[in-house]
Recover the amino acids of this structure.
């Protein structure tokens, strides 16, 4: 089997080759993802759309190494996730991937700032730099002044923005976002998408979203439609990121 395609950093950002995820269940196994194959260029801005149960969230979990496939192979930045043990997989996720979950996954005992800086803390970034980076980002996405509030004192939309801040503040090479604009009003959604587009444009951060939001789909450079765990349509709506 060939290695991932050459891109701007010499590697595809994400590649999946004939990936299946099958859950044992009675009376018959559930094929949540069936033969999923994709090659995402470094610097791409990809939205995956489809009805509930189409496999969008499962695909993101597979691409991020949170779930192991039943069969098939996955690469991130040229490194094969499906060949890594749990320790090395956790290290790769910490250093290269940012996640935005539908359920936010914020730690209730930490403040908004502490939640947002958590990945930077694990990476060993000094406290002063962590605080500066989070506060700068909070100001951009409408969370300025909420740094000390715990999740229980934040609205659903505010919690979603904290979750997005946590995913992007470390400027990972790849961000996987599961319905990142859910529970947000139009202005907040646009502000978040503006931040993501700027990271994509200025730093070459690769974004892969699952979404029902037409605003996310409209901004995507590539729209992948899933049905029953398979790609039904893969539509390029913007330029392919240029190779160096």
């Amino acid at each position: 089997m060939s290695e991932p395609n050459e891109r701007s950093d010499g590697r595809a950002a994400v590649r999946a080759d004939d990936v299946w995820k099958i859950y044992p269940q009675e009376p018959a196994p559930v094929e949540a993802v069936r033969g999923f194959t994709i090659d995402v260029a470094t610097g791409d801005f990809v939205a995956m759309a489809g009805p509930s149960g189409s496999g969008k969230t499962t695909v993101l979990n597979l691409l991020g190494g949170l779930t192991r496939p039943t069969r098939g192979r996955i690469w991130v930045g040229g490194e094969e996730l499906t060949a890594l043990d749990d320790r090395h997989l956790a290290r790769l996720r910490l250093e290269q991937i940012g996640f935005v979950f539908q359920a936010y996954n914020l730690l209730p005992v930490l403040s908004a700032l502490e939640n947002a800086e958590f990945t930077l803390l694990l990476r060993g970034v000094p406290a002063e730099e962590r605080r500066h980076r989070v506060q700068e980002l909070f100001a951009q996405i409408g969370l300025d002044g909420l740094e000390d509030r715990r999740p229980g004192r934040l609205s659903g939309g505010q919690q979603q923005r904290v979750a997005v801040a946590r995913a992007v503040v470390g400027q990972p090479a790849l961000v996987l976002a599961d319905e990142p604009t859910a529970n947000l009003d139009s202005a907040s959604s646009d502000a978040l998408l503006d931040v993501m587009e700027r990271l994509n444009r200025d730093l070459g951060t690769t974004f892969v979203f699952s979404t029902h939001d037409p605003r996310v789909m409209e901004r995507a450079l590539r729209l992948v439609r899933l049905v029953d765990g398979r790609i039904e349509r893969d539509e390029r709506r913007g330029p392919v990121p240029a190779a160096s």
Remarks:
- The helical segments are 56-63, 86-96, 112-116, 118-123, 127-140, 156-168, 186-203, 214-219.
